[in-house]
Amino acid sequence: MISNQRPLSNSADKFRSSGFSLLELFISLSLLFILSSSVAMALISTQGLSRDIFVTTQVTSDLERLIERLSRKLTSGVEIVTSTDTSIIFQEPVDLLSDGNYYDSNNNLVYGADGEENWAYEFLWIRSGSYVEVTEGIDLNSDGDITDLFESGDLVYRILNETGGVERTIRLTSNGNIVRHDFDSLPPLFNQTDENTIEIILSMPAIDVQRGQRLDRLMQVSKTVSLR
User: Could you tell me if 156 and 178 are in contact, meaning their C-beta atoms sit under 8 angstroms apart?
Assistant: First the structure.
């Protein structure tokens, strides 16, 4: 009796020749998974880098606007009363009678602030706290270690009366974003080089508010201001 059934080996061979074996399919899927993972990690890394660039650019822009605000006030013919690393007190010519005359009876300029004789303005850095790099796990000033202590604080703009009492205070920054190094590795905020020139140097850590983290970089902006 002659059987019409074809050998099984021929069928298996035909199946293998017309597609992938199970092993080949498994290898292909594994390679695809690895490739997809690599692409995803690359995208995440690129997005993180783009976010860091955005944050540092924003912080630098904020510092530049702040330093321009300070310098505009200091370039209006002011007279420096006193200055330290963290404070500068100054006066401007005042028109006491609002008649366009800034001189007294002896033809001397009358100096003051807010329209009052002998009053003064002040830019002041007020310390609000401190933090050690190691608690943040970052090297903020890129000096190769994470043991540095930084003092954080904010800038305020004050109007002082003739006895030195504070008449008004305007906050220029918040959240302790202007920092100073506890070991004086950062330059002074205000550096008066001569009676007519002062250098303003502001340092602020790059903080990503959205991600709630401080980046390992310190942004710094400076400007030399001529008072005359």
Answer: no
| Average pLDDT of the chain, as a whole number | 78
Our CA angle for 197, 202, 205, nearest 5°, is 170
Q: Please tell me the distance from the alpha carbon of residue 57 to that of residue 60, in angstroms, as a whole number.
A: 5
**Hey, where are the domains in the chain?**
36-226
Tell me the mean pLDDT in the region 179-196. 77
The percent helix, strand, coil of the chain (3-state, each to 5) is 30, 35, 35
Query: In this predicted structure, what is the pLDDT of residue 160?
Result: 97
147's CB contacts (< 8 A; 6+ apart) are 132, 133, 134
Q: Is 204 helix (H, G, I), strand (E, B) or coil?
A: strand
Measure the CA angle with vertex 83, ends 111 and 185; round to 5°: 160
Residue whose structure tokens are 């002062």: 198
* Beta carbons of 147 and 169 less than 8 angstroms apart: no
Q: Is the dihedral of CA 39, 40, 42, 46 positive or negative?
A: positive
pLDDT digits (tens, 9 = 90+) for 142-180: 777 788 888 889 999 999 999 999 999 999 998 888 888
Length reported for the chain: 228
